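pasting for ref
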Amino acid sequence: MKVLVAYYSRTGTTRRIAQEISTLLECDIEEIQDMTNRSGLIGWLRSGRDAGARKLTTLKEIKNDPGLYDIVIVGTPIWNHSLSTPIRTYIAQCKDSFREVAFFRTGYTADDNPFEEMELLSGKKPKATMKLQSKQEIGADQHQEKLQEFIRQITR
C-alpha cells in the first residue's frame, strides 16, 4: 500500500506526529505550506479568525500528487475549534484525487472534532481518525497507544 502523510503545522506539534506516522509506515510525507504569514501573535489571531470563518488560503506548490497514493493521511492542528485553513484548502484542492483518507488532529482539548467537516470536504469516509491533545498526550509522550491503534486501522 502506497501512503502519503500530508500535514500543516504552525508550531511543530502536528509536524512531530506526521513524522512519527511517516517513520512507522515508511511512507512519503508532504508539509502543506501556507503563503499567509501565520507566525507570532498576529499570525495566531489571523489563523483563528480564518478558521472560524471557514476561509481558504493560497498554498505553496504541492510536491506529491495525492492521486498516486492508495491512502492519504491528513493532519491538522485545531484552530478556533476547527481544522486549520491550510488543510481546509488542501482538501478542497485535492479531494478528487483521494482514493482513501485517514485524519488526525492535534489540539489542546479532547472536544474539538474536525473530522466531520474533513469528511464532507473530501467526500470520503476516513479509514481511521486520531485525536491527540498537545500538552497532555504529545508533550508528555503519552500518545503512543493511540498512534499504534491509528496505524493498525490504516494497515488492516
